[in-house]
Design brief:
- Keywords: Hydrolase, Membrane, Metalloprotease, Protease, Transmembrane, Transmembrane helix.
- InterPro entries: Metallopeptidase_M50B.
- This is Metalloprotease.
- One of its GO terms (molecular function) is metallopeptidase activity.
- This protein is mostly helical.
- It has 2 domains: 121 residues, no CATH class; 95 residues.
- 70% of the residues lie in helices and 6% in strands.
- It has 8 helices and 2 strands.
- A two-stranded antiparallel sheet has the order 1-2.
- Helix 1 packs parallel to helix 4 and helix 5 packs across helix 7.
């Protein structure tokens, strides 16, 4: 991985913008097929509903896609605040796998990651960079929640359910202290911070799965 040194502030290279756009679109397509299984079968049967596909794609990109990308950009913002050089890189192989998984009704997404390097940082700073992603998803779930409470049945209600459930599941999943997930880095910094964020994230993820749903 090659990094370019940026000036002060948040900047995006042409490659990073391209990767963010590709990840956003690919995730939208993958979850469109996952949420609407009939679209995949209709496509094979030659009776594909363009209107349904466009509406579902817009919902997916505006909820799932935003949740994934803002999660990653939160890592970037905090890393830069600590003097690191940080850029998002899409994993095009995993994006293709995500679309294929969506077509067969399987939930899987690993669109890429923010990689950062440069100035040496402390375990605390590394933990803060990591926890920024799940905390962003928790905040996004709170933003979408009023749509669940106050919107009538319809597209806004669906957007609220998707926004809440997907973001809470993302927060809970990423706080698992395993492999490259954020939880492992947070735990390496502070068991107290890890415990609080893990319990809140996982608890809310279970609540969302049981009582909020995805609106489909």
């Amino acid at each position: 991985m090659t990094y370019q040194r940026h000036s002060d502030g948040i900047e995006f290279s042409e490659r990073e913008i391209r990767d963010l756009g590709a990840a956003w679109l690919a995730l939208g397509i993958a979850f469109t097929f996952f949420f609407r299984r009939d679209l995949a079968s209709d496509l094979l049967a030659g009776i594909f509903s363009v209107e349904t596909a466009i509406v579902t794609l817009a919902l997916s990109m505006g909820t799932v896609g935003i949740g994934f990308l803002l999660h990653e950009l939160a890592h970037k913002v905090v890393a830069i605040q600590f003097g690191r050089i940080a850029e998002f890189r899409a994993d095009y192989t995993m994006l293709a796998v995500a679309i294929g998984a969506g077509l067969v009704g399987f939930l899987f997404a690993a669109p890429g990651a923010v990689y950062h390097a440069g100035r040496e940082i402390t375990p605390r700073q590394n933990g803060l960079i990591a926890v920024a992603g799940p905390l962003t998803n928790l905040a996004l779930a709170a933003v979408f929640f009023p749509l669940v409470l106050f919107s009538p049945d319809g597209i806004l209600q669906q957007a609220g359910q998707l926004g809440v459930s997907v973001n809470l599941l993302l927060a809970g999943f990423n706080m698992i202290p395993f492999g490259p997930l954020d939880g492992r880095k947070v735990l390496s910094w502070s068991i107290i911070v890890f415990s609080v964020v893990f319990l809140v994230s996982v608890g809310l993820a279970i609540w969302a799965a049981l009582f909020v749903g995805f609106g489909y």
